[in-house]
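Notes, Module 5: Reading structure tokens.

Key idea: the token line is not a picture. It is a compressed description, and you learn to read it the same way you learned to read a sequence, by spotting repeated patterns. We will look at two proteins. The first is printed below with its tokens.
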Amino acid sequence: MELRILRYFLAVASEENISRAARMLHITQPTLSRQLHDLETELGVQLFERGSRHITLTPQGLLFRRRAREIIELSDKARQELICGCDEIKGTVVIGAGELQSVRKLGLYIKEFRDLHPQVSFELITSTADQIRSQLDQGLLDLGLMVEPLPGQNYEMIRFLETESYAAVMPADHPLTRQICIRPEDLAGVPLILPGREEVRKTIISWMQGYYEDSQTVLISNLAFNGIQMVTAGLGVFVGIPGVGLDLLSGELETRSLQPALSSFSDIVWKPDVPLSTAAEAFIRFLKEKGDL
């Protein structure tokens, strides 16, 4: 299977029309149709539903589109890394990050690094920790910014000294807003909205010291901001790391710290067994040399 054929497939999937895709690719329509037919024959599955005006993806085609994009992204990334020689630091560092307050600190480090190496650019992708882990494993990300506990132990890491604080977010008219902080017993029987990461939920449940019941969880959200949005709908109280969601709270919502306080370090992580670009390795060295991490 050639990369050229994967690009043909992605073009048709995007255009949903073989004629338009052929014009965009600068090949004839019969040639493109034959290439798609050969691809389906090679894979042994039907990738497209062919209509009179439009061509759409089958369920197998949708899955293959996702994998084809990953392959093309890896190929383009590898080509760029090979073009960028080792004599001069340049290239793109791709970082996956959650909706965290520590992203601001990461931005300061990126700015300082680029002052030293202006030919290095960065791509920041906002994802959940599970998505970051998967993309690190596949080599689609160079680095990840995640909150502890980390999902798995097969990572190298640099710990940020700043921590991400857990909090409770509730409607402005909720009875708990009368309190300065929220204790475990205050949440007994209260409908809860919790983070999607299992490791983080276990941390919260452990903090509640036996006051938690499974029936309290009315919703889990893999992104904190969306979970906080559900609070405005009256579903319950969000407990977790609000991250940047705190900055976006409207007058409808209020936040309270937890007592005893609950917080987690955030870490820059990477896979030690995945080769990194010169730019990514230089950025890691730069972070290791920072005394305030």
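Here is the second protein, with the sequence above and the tokens below, as before.
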Amino acid sequence: MSAIVVVHGIGNQHSGPNSLHVPVSTALLDGLSRAGATEVKPESIRVAFYGHLFRPLGTASKGELAYTHRDVTEPFEIELLIRWWAEAHRLEPDQVPPPAVTGTSKASTPQSVQRALYALSRSRFFARTADRFLIGILKQLRLYLTNPDVREHVQAEISATVTADTRVIVGHSLGSVVSYEALCAHPEWPVHTLVTIGSPLGIPNLVFDRLLPQPRSGRGSWPGNVRAWTNLCDRRDVVALTKRLNPLFNDGERIVRDILIDNGWQAHAIEPHLTAAETGSAISEGLRMTP
């Protein structure tokens, strides 16, 4: 039985569904407990895992590939990196210098990327994030949104995890994009509650406008059979550039409930999101909802 399915975010290619289950389920149960729900058992929670699809075959190192600023040449990656830089400066103007106005030609790209990575390293949000890991995040997001084969294989992993017992899907970071698209593609699923955390779904052009199904007239499709959608993020989350999703996805009758939470400077990490009482309340409400 998997009443709750959690879809992880970027950067988990060296993990697995069982190794993620312990920290994810523990944090989720803490959030439920803080919301007054203590009846859920760990076995009711499953992790839909797709990280292995981004793990290079035959890599001897357990760490990230040795990316440098010279590996960031795709316009998608450069634009997202510059947007993160601008958001980090907005949140910490005393720490992070403002983005320089530069072009994105091949001649200027390495220097522009290098400046962006240096600026982001001064942000408390990215302070302990190595450049190679940050570049890996950019590449995973781009691959999912631009490579149909990658998208298909990721979606297949989610479909294999959702069962007739699943009522709530929780999607973190890229996992929120994956969850949203899966629910749109499967209106026959019994899932009636979607909880998105640290979601990049609303980033214009790069994410929102690349969703399947494609948004129309600036409005995204409502996800399948979902009756309740709660979106949670920290105001300091640089990845969740668009903090409010309701203006982009409400269909006139159903709305996205946008909630800001405080995760300290672990603004994007999944565990602090899951331990929040607000997240526990949204999941608990979904579990109590009649099929």
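Summary for the second protein:
- The two ends are 15 Å apart (CA to CA).
- The CA atoms of residues 5 and 141 lie 21 Å apart.
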